[in-house]
Structures are given as C-alpha cells and as structure tokens.
Write a structure and sequence with these properties.
This protein is of the alpha/beta class. The chain contains eleven helices and seven strands.
C-alpha cells in the first residue's frame, strides 16, 4: 500500500500555453519549490488543476512531469475523473503505470445517479488498482455526490483509505468520521478551516491555496500536530483571509494569478474560464503580502 498520506497536499495548477502544450519547466519548478517548502505530497488534476478542461494527452503529460519532478521525495496522488466507469478504470490503470502513489477518485455526472450506481463507480476504481484511493466528495459542484451510507460501504474496501471533502460543512466531516469508524482518514479542502478539521481528527488538507502559501500551510499543519492550538489559530486566521479572497473568484484563476505574482509563468485558466480581474489581482496581492 506504500506510505500513509498526511499533511499538506497542494492541488497543482496545470500550466498550458496558448497552443495547448504543457509548460513542463514551469510545472517542474513549481513542484520542486513546493517540496522544498515542506509539503507532504502533490496532487495534480484536482479542481485547481482544471481536470474538466484538459485533454487526455495534457493530463498524461502533467502527471508525467509531476512524478518526474517529485522523484519519490513525496507521494503523488493523481486525480481521476470521468463520467463513465470504463473511462475511470482505464485512467486509473494508466496513472498506476505512470508511477502515481495514489488516486483521487472523482465522479463527473451528467444524468442523476442513485446510491448504488455511485458506489459501483468508486468500487470499480478501487478494484482497478492496488494503489490507495482517496474518495472525493464535493456536494457544491457534483451532480452525484457520496452519501454517508455509500461512504460507509466504500470504506470497507481495503484500498479505499482516505476521503477528501470539499463541502463547507465541518459537521459533515465529523459524521463521516463517526460512520467510517477509523477505516478511512479525512482530508479537508480550502472550503474548510484546516485547523478545525485537524482538531476533530483530520489528517491534513488537499487544497489549491497551498500552492501559493506552502510554507505557511506546512507551519499550520505542524502547529496542529503539536497541538499548539492558540498559535495554530493565530496563523489560521491569517491564512483564512487568503481563502476568503479565493472564494470570491474562479479558483484556478486565483491560484494561477497568485503564482504569476510570485514569478511562475503558469498562464491563464483554460477557456471559457476568464483570467483573474484587475480587482482580483489587487485583492490577492494584498492577501499574499499580509502573509509575508
């Protein structure tokens, strides 16, 4: 099963130029700098990575560059998203062949699906690999989300070991923890207050904002692990102001905009998404300056 996942996993952006080519050097540099900042893993092809806007070839290249740049220093947990089970299974097997250390399983649904269909999709992904599987649940964006009974059933599959929740409901996380009874570990998203999730038993967070504030994110995690809650909350409040800026704008545009401000030529979000506005850039610049 490999090493256990914990800590800060930045959701990587997908730097793609106007001709559709992945900017390998930019992505490799970002990965290297994030690892140097102390992050505990990397997650390409998450929401911040614009998985819904990339071609199969672009996805493959992003994963190849990330795995090569990580060079075994931290685990790489790759997003697998599909509308069909067959596509999800094929992607999962390909990502394992490429050298991924885990799979973040995402269900894209056009037509409504019942609990049985949702369970079968994720169970098929888990059955297609020996890698640890992270379930992704996001009731704000997904047409077909994971219910508590489905999470309970999936948690009994040996390699379904983690769940990343992108709701804004921390109580939901506690309900999941109680229902799963320790069979899966919980990662938060940027929509949650990470320190609060750590307090109730979370293992870390997978989130785009960690791309632009990796050292502060790692420092917050370390304070939480040490149970230095007063210091953790002081840092959390500063980081939360950054999250609030992201919440107002397109996530990929914000993270790419923030990285551009920091000297990474990651480009704009893929059309039809719009780049960060001038007002957004100013607000983001102020939030980053406050963080140092």
């Amino acid at each position: 099963m490999g090493r256990a996942f914990h800590g800060v996993f930045p959701y990587l952006v997908s730097p793609v130029d106007a001709d559709g080519r992945v900017r390998d050097g930019v992505l490799a540099r970002l990965c290297d700098d994030l690892i140097a900042a102390g992050v505990h893993g990397l997650t390409p092809l998450g929401s911040t990575g614009e998985f819904a806007y990339l071609s199969p070839a672009q996805k493959r290249r992003i994963v190849e560059v990330t795995i090569e740049a990580a060079a075994g220093r931290v685990p790489v947990v790759v997003g697998v998203a599909a509308t069909t089970t067959a596509d999800a299974v094929a992607q999962t097997r390909e990502m394992e062949r490429l050298g991924a250390n885990g799979v973040l399983a995402i269900l894209e649904a056009y037509f409504p699906l019942d609990d049985e269909a949702i369970h079968d999709y994720f169970a098929a992904v888990a059955g297609a690999t020996a890698l640890p599987v992270v379930l992704y649940t996001n009731p704000n964006f997904q047409r077909a989300d994971l219910s508590l009974p489905v999470i309970d059933r999936l948690s009994r599959i040996a390699n379904v070991r983690y769940l990343k929740d992108a709701s804004t409901n921390t109580g939901r996380l506690l309900s999941i923890m109680e229902r799963a009874e320790g069979r899966i570990e919980i990662f938060a998203a940027s929509a949650h207050i990470p320190a609060a999730v750590m307090l109730i038993g979370g293992k870390g967070w997978m989130a785009g904002p960690a791309c632009v504030a990796p050292r502060q994110s790692v420092a917050l995690y370390d304070l939480c692990v040490a149970r230095r809650w007063e210091e953790a909350m002081a840092l959390q409040r500063r980081l939360w102001r950054l999250n609030q800026a992201f919440a107002k704008y397109n996530l990929a545009a914000c993270i790419k905009g923030g990285l551009t401000l920091q000297g990474y030529d990651v480009g704009d979000p893929l059309a039809p998404q719009k780049p960060l506005s001038a007002q957004g850039r100013e607000e983001l610049s102020r939030a980053l300056a406050e963080l140092g």
